[in-house]
Each structure stands twice: as structure tokens, then as C-alpha cells.
Design goal:
By secondary structure, this protein is α+β, with helices and mostly antiparallel strands. It is globular and about 45 Å long. A hairpin with a 2-residue loop joins strand 6 (about 110-115) and strand 7 (about 120). The protein is about 25% helix and about 30% strand.
Length: about 170
């Protein structure tokens, strides 16, 4: 059971290889195995074209709201282990993958961390430009405000193009 000082965190999970929905559900299952992490809310699944190359397989994406006592760095290590369990390999940026998990927001803080040469920036530096993040985030947290830009999610949504995004019915 989590203590009251647990942090509220939003995670984005995406997949565009293999059984995408199964990959995301497995990632959720692995997250729930951690005794100091609890999923509070999960968005519907959303489908988007691959970026920057729309000829690559389409993505399936969700956003989760979790509570955790893990530090940002320990959470980062944990989600990287989950990605690896699900078959993610080191590859070039924006290449297709079985599972990609991003820390979108960690307790409404602005953080820059160094993790074995990787720079971790929280909130995610491009989340305010990504419809496949903002729409599912809006679905589960309509009052969310960007920690850095201080704009609420409704304002951010008005600034993006949603033409290529559609909801998928959860089976």
C-alpha cells in the first residue's frame, strides 16, 4: 500500500511493433507488479501515424496516471527494464518499437536528470506538441496544467492538429 506522500506521475506508453495492444497491456501489468506503484487511471487506446515517417507502422498509445514512491530516477530505471522485457532494443531515434514508456509529468515538477549519459527531462520536452499524449491525458486529467509553460491542457489542445488521431474501442 502506498503512503500519503506518494507522487502523482503521468506516463505515456506507445507501441508500433507486434501485438501493440498486448504490448501495452503487458507494460501495465509489469507496472502493477511494483509494490510502491499504483495505476490510478488509464486512458483509452489511441492510434496515430508514425512520426516522422508515416510509412512506418502506426502507433497505439495510452496515458496512465500513477501514484508512486519511486524517485524519478528509480522510476526511469524501472520503465527501461519493462521496455527491455517487452523486446525493445537500442536503435536509432524514432524507429519502430514494441514498447516505449515516457515519464510525461512527475508530481508537477520541472526536472533535469543525468542517467548514465541519458538526459532525462521532466516534463517530457515534446508532450505539449503531441496530440497522442495530450488527448489521452485530457481524458484522464481535464484540469492538468503544464508544469513549465503553465498552460492548462485545454489551451495546449487548441494549439495542436488532431486530424490523424482517432480513438480505438477497448475490447
Amino acid at each position: 500500500m502506498l503512503e500519503k506522500q506518494a507522487n502523482t506521475v503521468f506516463l505515456g506508453i506507445g507501441s508500433n511493433l507486434g501485438n501493440k495492444k498486448n504490448n501495452i497491456n503487458k507494460a501495465k501489468s509489469f507496472l502493477q507488479e511494483k509494490n510502491n506503484l499504483m495505476i490510478e487511471k488509464s486512458s483509452n487506446f489511441y492510434k496515430t501515424k508514425s512520426w516522422p515517417d508515416p510509412k512506418k507502422p502506426e502507433y497505439l498509445n495510452i496515458v496512465l496516471k500513477i501514484k508512486t514512491n519511486l524517485t524519478p530516477l528509480n522510476l526511469f530505471y524501472f520503465i527501461k527494464k519493462i521496455e527491455k522485457k517487452l523486446g525493445r532494443k537500442i536503435s536509432e531515434k524514432n524507429s519502430p518499437r514494441e514498447c516505449d514508456i515516457d515519464i510525461l509529468d512527475y508530481d508537477h515538477k520541472c526536472l533535469k536528470l543525468d542517467c548514465e549519459g541519458d538526459k532525462i527531462i521532466i516534463p517530457h520536452p515534446r508532450l505539449h506538441k503531441r496530440n497522442f499524449v495530450l488527448i489521452p491525458l485530457y481524458e484522464i486529467s481535464k484540469k492538468w496544467t503544464h508544469p513549465k509553460y503553465k498552460l492548462n491542457i485545454s489551451q495546449l489542445l487548441k494549439q495542436i492538429d488532431t486530424i490523424d488521431l482517432r480513438s480505438i474501442t477497448v475490447e
